[in-house]
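Predict fold of NUDIX domain-containing protein; 432 aa.
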Amino acid sequence: MSLAAKAGARSKQQAKQQGKQQTRRRKKSLRIKASRRPPVLAAGALVWRLKNDKLQVLVVHRPRYDDWSFPKGKAEPGESMVLTAIREVAEETGRQIVLGRYLGKARRRLVSGRKKRTLYWAAQVLPEAGPGEGLRAAVKPASKREIDKVRWWKVKKAARKLTHADDKRLLARLVDWYESGQLQVHSLVLVRHAKAVSRATWGYGINSEITRPLVMGRGQAQARDVAALLSAYGVRELVSSPWRRCVDTLAPYAHGCGLDLRSDETFTEVSALTAPELMQASFRDLLERGSALTGLPGRGPAGPQGRASAPEGRLEPEAVGPQGREPGLALAGQAGPGAAGPPEPSYPLALCVHRPCLPLLFETLREYMGPELATKLPDSDPWLRPGQAVVVHLRRWPASVQLGTTPEGDVEAGGGGDVVVKGTRIVALELH
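Predicted 3D structure, encoded as tokens:
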């Protein structure tokens, strides 16, 4: 080869190398820019049931990735994470669900370099005639190219066959809650009423306070958002201050579900000023009554010492039934053929109150939780924004148990924790 030819070959090789370097630099720059963007938000659920006294979870197969995982998906613009979880489970499995405790999040980096954060809840299939389903938007089922298999698996099989480490970690937490009696909980949703017409516009004095309505547009939209939140947690009982702005906040959910709305004079602004102890006593009654419905110690269908034997044996894959229903199964606490657990229904409850009531009610909530969990409660005015809610999950322990806490501050039984409790305790809370 002549010198000129060799020089030309070297020049081409150098140009090729420079091109590759420029491409790498461009890709790196794009990844850095993507990593600085807000994370992609997604949500999903670990849907569980008890069948023949065995804990099972609902899993999906994605042919594009050839993996087994829990149903999940990206949030749509303006959609809350709880509604994303419900919609994605419905699209991918055909099941309408009701949420329980927040389980945790999974983080990963997309090929583009952008971060993705997926939030998960424990959940159960909404039973026949479950509350709030009519308030949910219709969903388009996922195509077979996206999800081609939906199965109920025993947890041992799921621990073996789930593809991703994050899914296995979340499953382990779900099993821990089940074994320590904290998977079946009672949820109470404490709501601050939606945006109301100002006193300057409506008038001052007690009569005006009683009748002051929600703001057209913004306040009514917040009331609809509250209805969607209550639907997500399967609320079946509604309690409110009798003043109009509180009643109107819960009215869309009450009307949409055909539920009665019980008013209670002890939760008015006047009561917060004149009878705070009575308000707190009434609130304790709601907390104690609700947690009592979560049943017996242990984890539901108990064996010796309140503990059931671990799942064993092989479960054949089981296809999802029509219309997203589970005949013969029930929510935690509901009696039904094929479902074990507490004999009485567990009805999630919502209470709507005024801003001046919140510090008193938060003080009462702190009586039922450890110091780490208490730090998650708002501690300054305005406590909650109009239409905002705090969801607390309660459990009753008839005998003393040792509890620890997770890094998130949630209560965790077992393992020789440093907190000894007996009676009703708040094991987790969420702000929405």
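The domain at 40-143+150-179 is CATH 3.90.79.10 (Nucleoside Triphosphate Pyrophosphohydrolase).
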